[in-house]
Amino acid sequence: MHQGFRGGRRGWLAGIVPCLLLASCNGGATSQAPGELGDGTMMPGQPANPSAPANPASPSTSGDGAPQTPGGSALPPGGTSTPPTNNPGTGDPGTMPPGTPDPNATRCEGATPIAPTPLRRLTRFEYNNTVQDLLGVTLTPADQFPPDEIAGGFNNNAAVLTVSSLHAEKYAEAAELLAAEAVKNLSALLPCDPATVGEAACAERFVQTFGRRAYRRPITAEESDRLMRAYTAGRTDGTFAEGIEVVIRYALQSPAFLYRIESSGTPAAGEQRIRLSQYEIATRLSYLLWGSMPDDALLAAAEAGELSTKEQIANRARTMLADPRARRAAAEFFRQWLNLGKLDTMVKSASAFPLFDEAVRAGMKAETQAFIEHVLWSGDRQLTTLLTAPVGFANEALARLYGVTVPAGSSPSLVELPPERSGILTMPGFLAVHAHPDQTSPVLRGKFVREKLLCQPPPPPPPDANVTLPPAESGTSARARFTAHATDPSCAGCHRLMDPIGFAFENFDAIGAYRATEGGEPIDASGELVQTDVDDTFVGVRELATLLAQSQMVRDCLATQWFRFGSGRFDDEERDACALGQIRDAFSASGGDLMEMMLALTQTDTFLHRPVLAEEVTP
Amino acid sequence: MNRRFLSRRQLLRGALAATAAIPLLDAERTRAQSAAYPKRFVVFYTPNGTLSSGWKPQGTETSFTLGPLMSPLEPFKSKMLIFSGINLGAVQNSNYGSEHARGVGALLTARPLLKGNFRSFMSTNAGWASGISLDQHLANTLNPPTPFKTLELGVQVRDAEVRGRISYKGADQPVPPREDPYDTFNQLFGAAAPPSMPGGNPELDRLRLLRRSVFDLLREDIAAVRATLGREDRVKLEAHLDAIRAIEGRLAAPSDMGATTVPAAPAGAACAAPSLGERIDLADDNNMPAISKLQLDLAAAALACDQTRIVTIQYSYAESEHLYPFLGLSRNHHDISHDWKEPGFTEYSKIHTWFAEQLAYFLGKLDGYQEGDRTLLDNTVVFWGTEIGESRLHALSDMPYALIGSAGGYFRTGRFMNYMANGASGRQHNDLLLSIAHAMGTEDTAFGEPGFSTGPLPGLV
Asked: Looking at chain A from residue 105 to 164, which residues have their Cβ under 8 Å from any Cβ of chain B?
């Protein structure tokens, strides 16, 4: 029994349903039980005609961002196809000018319900950034924490991040280490001089100011009391500095620090959602755009009520995006989107790739950060540039792989690359993680494009598939080795969605070096895009990337990816439809400006609200 | 940070003082000779299934020869129970996750996965396992008086998704393994601390006193926050509270209380911390054998010193693409595991045999600790498991499972148990785990997914 055709989310395969309907594609092994389609994707009897609307039963803003692609015709702006409506049944037809097909107007009408965000625990990335900003230290103790789990492609998915006893142990150790480091420079930490105002009074003031920064909001009287008890514990039989040290140890292990708790406010009668507090919005902004805690200015803005209107929030977000802290946070999103987290543990066969060493690995990691910064802060911020710019950022080791020279030094240098290179899709790090240790993988590379650029995750292979990789014997190309995918009908239905994309990458080996031949034969890098809004044939990654850069589906998909990363959760098909539509529209309206896409999330009701809990509703 | 450059004071005040005051390393510290020896449970997990033709014993229940893949375990044949016909029925028809993900999720839980967004072998809908794993269940039920209720160790696991976890505190609560032997050593044996001096280390006593203050305050924090959260988030806070409970005894108990909070080492056991040597690069594939040895040495010492009675040891992750350059291989393990022909069989067998050698090394260590008439191994039950059966088929049936050690004479060992003999349809894995639970001393009537347990496996005791 194979799970793949029944699992997944609603709308999961909206764009590639015809693949699933090939009887051969399931190897004849799926015995779909009735009633198991509750969360499934495939409706028996759906038309196999690829030109038919892919999934009429499902709203167009499916979670995976695949818009309907009616007959390959050009998509309307916004990439949505909800039919124009005069809001039948709402009793308020006058809110929309007649004839204006604004799909968001229906999705976003009224106080749209808000999907819950599970309690968000700081990731290792966020923890390190936060303690550095909070304490002015350079330590990165979260490197010793257990790795954050990756779900839905990102490691900040709140649903799967829990605290095990190993976490608790590491939190305690880190807090002790950080507190000891911080009190080395006590006067910088304190808002007062204990010799002048008295120790207890100064400790009180420290608890208030530090507590507000550590908990990212003013502390309550009870919290103040507990923090002072920590001070007293350290001060008793110890010094004033030890009292402060214990306050820090404690605060850094408090749930108010380790989690992003959003539970303030009292719901109005009958309301299903509640506006986040100013401080909660400040915290959402800072972790979204900086990957860290709010700074003093942002907390002050919250205190002054200056995060009230969407315009205020947009202005604040623009200011924040200009801050250097935004660079690390943005790079983190793109790094995870590109699956580059695997760079740390990626292994390559030393015999097949003697060029690959730790310096190359370091160069691969540094390049993403530099390239993202280049596009977003020095360049035109365009998705097109991200996908097609023939430039790289290389240290010396990576330059050797590229076949160019760079000045000596550790920081990566901007290098102009030959025209076969094309933005992120030909960066050696990207190419290397989407390959096997010993050979390239047209499947993994094609699958990345389907999954992360088009938001069409391919289904798993049939249960009886021979999934052994063809051996990388000399004299045969990858294309030749993978012919079974095209000729075996049980494979072809789905692999034709991935392999013809992946073959375009074959000029780049498993560590991302260019090669014109494989096994003595010239490489055929021709490929084909099917079941997208930019279907065409092409040769090489550059032509592929140029097509993708024109795709509405790709823009919409990236907006979905950003939503998931920024929200720390998977999108909810119904309740997030409005927000997703707004981000996609803003991204498209800006002509593919990545900064505008990032900013657009802050302008959604989803970003500014939480749902009212069942427990909060008074009977 | 580089630990070698820390001052002693930093060590005491900082991270490495974590377990500093556990006064257990006195080799002389012994329990009265008459005391019973504790039972222990060890899980030895290796990825990517088996090659049944090389794994299965040939012969009858009591007269059989080991398959070639098991040959390193020949010295322990009389202490083994080897199974045929154990099925992972609880996940065979599950909707969520690939076979690898489902198999590893069920290995110790005997439950299906929840729905989620993890990727596993082209499937993208796997979540965490849906219930508690046997190791954690035993810890909860038996509540051993050891500093570590359980100890989870990993050898180059490198994966933080469902396929990289075998242990669960409960549904959606994976327990990550410790992958750094040097850190584990410090937690277990407090290498950075001065020799234990019960009541004689005021600085350490103060550190632990202040930790108690902090943990007490955290309990109040968690209770206050918990009250403001919804039901699902409360579960997270409760898990967090449990996590603090699990560590506070060994991190914060007064050091002069050590003699009462830390049980004495079993009588006669030569309990000593292993020597780790110079730190090696944990990321280097060529160091896998060295890392394996370090973790196995630590596990054996932790058991011998009664630091814990429940250990899981995990190699890599389910559907592992690990390379084995030290075995002269260049292709990745998962790839090799699906090869239907040579050289795949030979390459796969090399890795499998290496796993068996690691297990044999560990069993040898346990068997070297004399405990009265028996050995530590005899007082232990080691479960060797993997996430799929025949690797080439992604099978979730006829799992290649074996137990070694009799759990203090509970199991009748030295036998090959074929539950598919005479046309029988096999037994569910739930009942194997239930049998282990009984061997360890619980009175459970079922384990794992409801409806799959029918009682302990017949013929084992």
From this structure: 116, 118-119, 121, 139, 141, 144, 146-153, 155, 157, 159-160, 162-164
User: What is the tens place of the pLDDT at every residue in B246-305?
Assistant: 899 888 877 554 433 344 455 455 678 888 999 999 988 899 999 999 999 999 999 999
Query: Which residue of B7, B179, B215, B236 is the best one to mutate when testing the A interface, meaning the one whose CB has the most A CBs within 10 A?
Result: B236
Q: Is A591 on the interface with B (CB under 8 A)?
A: no
Contacts of A1 in chain B (CB under 8 A): 92-93
Do A7 and B125 count as a contact with CB atoms less than 8 A apart?
yes
CA B447 to chain centre: 18
Does A458 touch chain B if contact means CB atoms closer than 8 Å? Answer: yes
Cα distance between residue A78 and residue A67, in whole Å: 9
Burial A331-349 (b: 16+ CB within 10 A, else e): bbbbbbbbbbbbbeebbbb
Closest chain B residue by Cα to residue A564? B117
Whole-number pLDDT of residue A297: 97
Q: How many residues does chain A have?
A: 619
pLDDT score, position B171: 92
Q: What are phi and psi of B430, to 5 degrees?
A: -50, -40
What pLDDT score does A17 carry?
33
Which of A546, A519, A344, A587 shows the shortest CA–CA distance to A426?
A546
Task: List b or e across A408-438, with b for residues whose CB sees 16 or more CB atoms inside 10 angstroms.
Answer: eeeebbebebeeebbbbbbbbbbbbbbbbbb
Q: Give B225 to chain A, closest Cα distance, Å.
A: 7
* Pairwise CB contact (< 8 Å): B160 & A233: no
* Contact check, Cβ <8 Å, A118/B232: yes
Average pLDDT over every residue of A549-571: 96
- Whether residue B343 is preceded by a cis peptide bond, meaning omega within 30 degrees of 0, is yes
Using an 8 Å CB-CB cutoff, list chain B residues near A437: 321, 323, 330-332
A465 touches chain B (CB under 8 A): no
ipTM score: 0.87
| Mean pLDDT taken over chain B | 87
Q: How far is A73 from chain B (nearest CA, A)?
A: 30
The percent of residues in chain B predicted with pLDDT above 90, rounded, is 70
pLDDT band of A103, cuts 50, 70, 90: low
The reported pLDDT for the residue numbered A54 is 36
Which residues in A331-454 belong to E strands, given as ranges? 391-394, 413-416
CB contact under 8 A, B116 and A614: no
- Bigger pLDDT: A175 vs B252: A175
In this prediction, residues A515-536 reach a mean pLDDT of 93
For A152-182, the DSSP string reads: TTBTT-GGG----HHHHHHHHHHHHHHHHHH
Residue indicated by tokens 């050698």: B357
For residue B173, the cross-strand partners are B170
Residue position matching structure tokens 């989803």: A606
Give residue-wise pLDDT tens across range A407-431. Answer: 887 789 999 999 899 999 999 999 9
A257: nearest CA in chain B? B221
The answer for residues whose C-beta is within 8 angstroms of residue A315's C-beta and 6 or more apart is none
